[in-house]
């Protein structure tokens, strides 16, 4: 999808739980009205989107356990590629400590548990769109 000319950027959000996807899409649209919110229900669809045009993509917010490729695998795939260096990645999931540690330490992405307060989630995404760079300063 191309970025709308009136948009400040694009936030990609992936989760296989339709209810979570709907709730957070509404919240992201409410709190980021100048951003396009693109949603995906599986890892393969998100990865395919990331292999396309990245103009305007500011943040990737992804669940870990989804059909197809996992959120951690997507973050790992993107980490070494220069075209993703100005995109912030946030793993929004319920994960084992070893996955959290790997995502935060090795890939410098942010981790948020799914039961996080909506206001905190919005604040973290706000920081990510303002200061992209693999979790630095978030």
What does this structure look like?
- With 138 residues, the chain is an alpha/beta fold.
- Helix content is 39%, strand content 20%.
- It contains 5 helices and 5 strands.
- Strands 2-1-3-4-5 form a 5-stranded parallel sheet, sandwiched between helices.
- The longest helix has 14 residues, at 18-31.
- The N and C termini lie far apart (27 Å).
At a glance:
This protein is α/β, with parallel strands linked by helices and 138 residues long. The protein is built from five helices and five strands.
Which strand-content bin applies to the residues? 15-25%
- The parts where pLDDT drops under 50 for at least 5 residues are none
Mass-distribution shape: globular
Mean pLDDT: 87
Number of strands: 5
The total of helices stands at 5
Spatial order of strands in the largest sheet? 2-1-3-4-5
Classify the secondary structure makeup into a structural class: alpha/beta
The gyration radius over C-alpha positions equals 13 Å
Provide the fold topology.
Layout: E1 9-14, H1 18-31, E2 35-40, H2 43-50, E3 57-62, H3 71-79, E4 88-93, H4 97-106, E5 110-113, H5 118-130
Parallel strand pairs: 1-2, 1-3, 3-4, 4-5
